[in-house]
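Morning - flavin-adenine dinucleotide inputs below, output right after.
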Amino acid sequence: MKYDYLIVGAGFAGSVMAERLVSQQNKKVLVVEKRNHIGGNAYDEYNDDGILVHKYGPHIFHTNSKQVFDYLSHFTEWIPYEHKVLAKIGEELYPIPINRLTINKLYNLNLTTDEEVKNYFDSVKEKRYPILNSEDIIVNQVGYDLFEKFFKHYTKKQWDLEPKELSPSVCGRIPVRTNVDCRYFTDKYQFMPKHGYTKMFELILSHKNIEVVLNTDYKEIVNDIKFDKMIYTGPIDYFFDYQFGKLPYRSIRFEWETLEVENFQEAAVVNYTEDKYEYTRVTEYKKLTNQKNQKTTISREYSSSSDDPFYPVLTNQNKVMYDKYKNESEKFKSISFLGRLAEYKYYNMDQVVAKIIKLFN
Ligand code: FAD
Ligand code: UDP
């Protein structure tokens, strides 16, 4: 059997590419996935208590792209969901992204307009220019105290690096608001797949020209099968046998607990921004999907440097190493390196889908 494409990885990048190739060009595709399931880090499953959980941490779909939303809508129905996160400081919970309500509660103020909040930020922010790192980008907007309370320790726990050592784009993912909008995202389309991500991936991959092989590292089979082209969505350094060194990827260890109570916390996600907690955040999954159950399942996230790669670590030094791999990868005309791990980019799900659709078109 000869395939037109070998696709490594059954996450968003690999699965959407497979679907495009078979449905639009009638190609024959083999998808090889080293885990025992499809879906990549967006994989979800029902646990023993019948609660749908995200095995690799909370995944909330949000996009401004109608094209991405319309595309995925072929494979799932949706339920509306607007994500809200609270940060725990002391015994209190505060809205994050920082907004007017956060400031009023934290400092016992009574600011009532955007203008007043803007003036407040102006009075506490420190001018940083140029913005070189994740400390600069936050302190430049809201000053050191808010930075320290909400970002400094959380970031150190998450990345094992000081915000100063990380690209501005890391903490810069989180906006600062003068209004009372407590939503984590402001995108036009904010939904959860009605029957879960895994069901959506099953449909994306359900085509007679797509064969999926699980539990297999591509290196075990790559020399035994015939194919014309490869789409590689695994870690780029692994592809090149770490020739220029090991690119750091951050991982997460999840501590799972199912509790005999209907509700555990006030929001689907609570961020623990103080350093006295080892974990970064706690997710209560029922609240993401509006499930009804007498019990509730939570996960605590402990960031780690273990071998299962989740996040690229965006520092100047790592970029230099990544660029060496990228240059090397460009010599392989019949292999495309795509997705969060292969492009070493902090992509959200919709950005990966957008990239694949664009590239395909
Ligand atoms: P992945 O999903 O990582 O898929 C790559 C696949 O390749 C994996 O299944 C892997 O097992 C496989 N693979 C790797 N190496 C090999 C090999 N050698 N052989 C065979 N297979 C291999 N995005 C959002 O939009 N909203 C969110 O709320 C959100 N929350 C997140 C929370 C966490 C904790 C994490 C880690 C990510 C989150 N993301 C979120 C990002 C989202 O997970 C990614 O954008 C998306 O999964 C990227 O898809 P991908 O296909 O590039 O990579
Ligand atoms: N962050 C923080 N405190 C928070 C939320 C986020 O310091 O309460 C920082 C942290 O460095 C984190 C980054 O902002 O890694 C991006 O946050 P996001 O919630 O987007 O992280 P993800 O969901 O991708 O893990």
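Note: Residues 85-172 form one domain.

O.
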